[in-house]
Design brief:
- With about 90 residues, this protein is mainly alpha-helical.
- It folds into two domains: about 45 residues, AN1-like Zinc finger (Zf-an1 domain), CATH 4.10.1110.10; about 40 residues.
- It is about 55% helix and about 5% strand.
- The protein contains two helices and two strands, in the order αββα.
- The chain has a two-stranded antiparallel ribbon.
- Strand 1 and strand 2 form a beta hairpin.
- The radius of gyration is 20 Å and the shape is elongated.
- About 10% of the residues are buried.
């Protein structure tokens, strides 16, 4: 049974796109989706109503982690920018 699962081609249930090596599995209906259709509302999830009910409570948490990720990315980017600037100044 496990072998079957591994060999099964991982394709998005909506657009049929190959999602290997990063398939998004809907935690509500258990189907496989690509990054675009991973959200319950994007793949018309059969358990969408339930999903909405649950995300109402977890949306704030999701948003917080997204903001943290964004800030981290920004910091890293500005660090790179500072390095560049530092080089420029040193070369003068
Ligand atoms: Zn898709
Ligand atoms: Zn779903």
């Amino acid at each position: 049974m496990l072998k079957e699962m591994v060999n099964k081609q991982q394709r998005c249930e909506i657009c049929g796109e190959d999602v290997y090596p990063l398939p998004y599995i809907c935690k509500y209906c258990g189907k496989t989706f690509c990054v675009e259709h991973r959200l319950p509302e994007k793949h018309n999830c059969e358990r969408l109503a339930e999903a909405i009910e649950k995300t109402k409570n977890s949306k704030i948490l999701d948003l917080t982690s997204e903001i943290i990720e964004f800030e981290k990315a920004q910091k890293e980017r500005s660090k790179g920018l500072l390095k560049k600037l530092g080089k420029k100044i040193r070369f003068k």
